[in-house]
């Protein structure tokens, strides 16, 4: 995937995670993640997705673009 797309995906995932952790819950989490932790979580999720996209053509027998 193009770096610009990966960067955008990371930013969007990070925003969604921040919203998720800001929501009140019936059973609160033991801690709220720091902005750095949210950033790392988003980068990890984007990396997993990027890897899946890159491996998909090989898994399906299709040549990548």
TrEMBL record:
This is Uncharacterized protein.
